[in-house]
Amino acid sequence: MSSFGVGRVSSLFVYPMSFDEFLTATGQEGLLRTKRNSSPTNPLPEAFYNRLVEAFRSYMLVGGMLEAVATYTETGSYRYSSDIVSEIIQGYQDDFAKYGAKANPLLLRQTLISVAHQAGAKFVYSRVEGQYRSAEVKVALEMLKDAGLIIPTYHTDANGVPLGAEINERVVKYLIHDTGVLLGILGIDDDIDDSIKEMMVADSINLVDKGHVAEMMAGLELIKYSSPQKRHQLYYWQNMNKGTCAEVDYVIARSGSIVPIEVKSGVKGSMSSMYSLMRNPQKHIEMGIRCSLENFGTFESPDGKKIDIIPLYAISNLFAEK
């Protein structure tokens, strides 16, 4: 019988590069330092703000896979980095054949594709192509999750901490583990030249308004800056009462309190779902966070509660030691 050295072995959970790591890898440490020194009460100078949006645009296209980032850094070419991502995706699919005893390789492939297309929404089993049974799809999802290719976001009632005490495991969203991989799976690289032109000229509002990329990037950044010593979970809130559609993209726990995070693709947009959650007296929520491509800032909800604007490119600031 094989043994495992309990107490003598440490496990670390690692992910594709974060945006901060991408800035370092691409020689933009000055931007990183400026970003880290900014806050809702000390916004970025406009010149640095514009440069960070451009850098984040590149990060969205390239993703954080090490070889893809290295290729982009060496060549400056999105096409070449996209070719690397395509090879990585093909490698995933080739590996699926090794697990045929546990799950149909085609089912694993179709499930991964379905997760990409359903990113940012409650996962619906019947949307996996191939008329597979829900039990079969569930096994495939577990295998993809264990492999680190997809990351679940669980619904929570958000009545208190720990948030995981009130999750509904039947209501789950899934994220692809990397934006470059997401874009590759969605087939954007099939016409990469036109796709790059479109994204490179898009304003900040339209830049991330593609396939729930903004919401996915926020979730991935929340995971990447958490402690690597344990597997962290993502949570979101939705009003489950019939006739309502209020939903908040993420809820986190900070200093024992619940903090909702609403992700926006532009500088405007309804905040009604967050306000609805914050007004609930049973939740005891005193502040919220809006993530977008805006500059840092702060404002008040209609009820007078504080809302901090933390840019998508500065989620790491939430984890900075005070």
Automatic annotation (TrEMBL):
Can you say what this protein is called?
Answer: ATP-binding protein
Does the keyword field hold ATP-binding?
A: yes
InterPro entries listed in its UniProt record: DUF4143
What's the superkingdom here?
Bacteria
Keywords for this entry? ATP-binding, Nucleotide-binding
User: One of this protein's Pfam families, by short name?
Assistant: DUF4143
Q: Which organism is it from?
A: Segatella copri
* Residue span(s) of domain DUF4143: 93-266
Query: Does Nucleotide-binding appear among the keywords?
Result: yes
| GO MF, one example | ATP binding
